[in-house]
Amino acid sequence: MEKVILDGKQVSQDIRKKLADRVETLKNEYEITPCLATILVGEDPSSETYVRMKGNACEKLGIKSEKIHLSADIDTEELLNTIERLNNDASVHGILLQHPVPSHIDERKAFESIAIEKDVDGVTSTGYGQTAFGFGKYPSCTPAAIMEILHYYGISAEGKNAVVVGRSPILGKPVSALLLNENATVTTCHSHTKDLPAVLSSADIVVAAIGKPQYIRGEWLKEGVVVLDAGYNKGNIGDVDYDSCYQQASAITPVPGGVGPVTISMLLKHTVDAAEESK
Amino acid sequence: MEKVILDGKQVSQDIRKKLADRVETLKNEYEITPCLATILVGEDPSSETYVRMKGNACEKLGIKSEKIHLSADIDTEELLNTIERLNNDASVHGILLQHPVPSHIDERKAFESIAIEKDVDGVTSTGYGQTAFGFGKYPSCTPAAIMEILHYYGISAEGKNAVVVGRSPILGKPVSALLLNENATVTTCHSHTKDLPAVLSSADIVVAAIGKPQYIRGEWLKEGVVVLDAGYNKGNIGDVDYDSCYQQASAITPVPGGVGPVTISMLLKHTVDAAEESK
């Protein structure tokens, strides 16, 4: 059996090359510099790293990165005011609120306050609903990345059994919706699923989005399965046990270098899309 | 094995009894008469029947029914204007646009224009997204009815394998979301599903929402399954083959008298909810 390593860096490079041209055109022909505003609340070191990575990726491509760093002791109201200001700032095309915010802040309320046309990270319930109904512009970036990888490698979801393990609002739910829109038969599993190995045994496509290192084992999967690992745990470890899953898979994303880099590319793409919409 | 016929008329009666009290209170203590506006476009006889049934159910309960009947040759703009007027009319608490509208009208655009706080029929993508994220006020009425029947009969979805056959925006998708929110492992099937009997064979709960008479056969189901038939085809026939499914089921909804009457009750409930919210 031919085995394909789904190389996220390759997919990402191709996307960013095309984006660079679009950014050039926006600047030269329309005097628009795409701009992503990122909001970081507090001092969580991994969140700081993520925001910095996203900012750097923007700047490399000529996208302006407006970094807003708020102190951990602000309240929900102050965060809402910041978002409101960015909603009304015509020079900002996309808004990303880095998850998680300190627990005294109503994160969901903050997400919901992001204007739908600037929700390039796909966190609002309206954005999710539009995605599920087939006309969403900016699905959450990791689900969008997973679909992009499938498309890039010519793997069709049509009529396949897709099993998504995880049901978070920015990962499990939207990737289930996107796979359903491409005519997969979709099963969404989670911590209350009784017999995960039994459900996985009929999967043609598996999306791992659990947040538990090396949780999914190859013994649970059938031969020829496509494995997409959206997990990213301490020490660069995914949610699937790579070695055993590799044995069974016809195609698999590595961690790192799989879904991760494409996720950032989708954020960049959505920001450029939003800038083009603002023309 | 004990077999339960899930009696929608019984469930419905109980809901409407409680609603009658709430309508009384709204009238006597707040001088608010809950009001549902229904919009019918064109002369489709079944649509006329549905709208009349809904209007009658409202009036029996003391809910005002404002019936708007537009001619088949209006354009999308005129329909949007009508909805806009109702959105701005404080005496109207719920708006129902009867599906389908004539094909030259952009039905989705019309649905989307209904104000979220008046979307008692659960047709907007925002309403769907909120439902899927667990804070939607008015899920579509048939999915809400299915959950209500399960609750009434004390059937928990927790950890069960639920298979939904159908993926429409007002039925298959939202009922999948609601079952997932109650911790079922949910599989959504549709016309592109390759081997429906195989998928159904592990189902603990089946929701039939296909629109094909007597499509689902008992031979495909395991013993003890709970069968919820949301189908309603010509001649009062559901989407499941009742006799063979009855044999396998521990609980099953009849057609008629199952999901149907509860669906209308949920519409009434949402209208009263919306009227209470307007206090």
UniProtKB/TrEMBL annotation, chains A, B:
Positions annotated to bind NADP(+): 166-168
Pfam families for the chain: THF_DHG_CYH (PF00763), THF_DHG_CYH_C (PF02882)
Gene3D superfamilies the record matches: Leucine Dehydrogenase, chain A, domain 1, NAD(P)-binding Rossmann-like Domain
Entry keywords, A to Z: Amino-acid biosynthesis, Histidine biosynthesis, Hydrolase, Methionine biosynthesis, Multifunctional enzyme, NADP, One-carbon metabolism, Oxidoreductase, Purine biosynthesis
The protein's annotated pathway: One-carbon metabolism; tetrahydrofolate interconversion
EC assignment: 1.5.1.5, 3.5.4.9
Catalytic activity: (6R)-5,10-methenyltetrahydrofolate + H2O = (6R)-10-formyltetrahydrofolate + H(+); (6R)-5,10-methylene-5,6,7,8-tetrahydrofolate + NADP(+) = (6R)-5,10-methenyltetrahydrofolate + NADPH
HAMAP family for this protein: THF_DHG_CYH
Record-stated family: Belongs to the tetrahydrofolate dehydrogenase/cyclohydrolase family.
Protein name: Bifunctional protein FolD
Protein species of origin: Halobacillus salinarum
Record gene name: folD
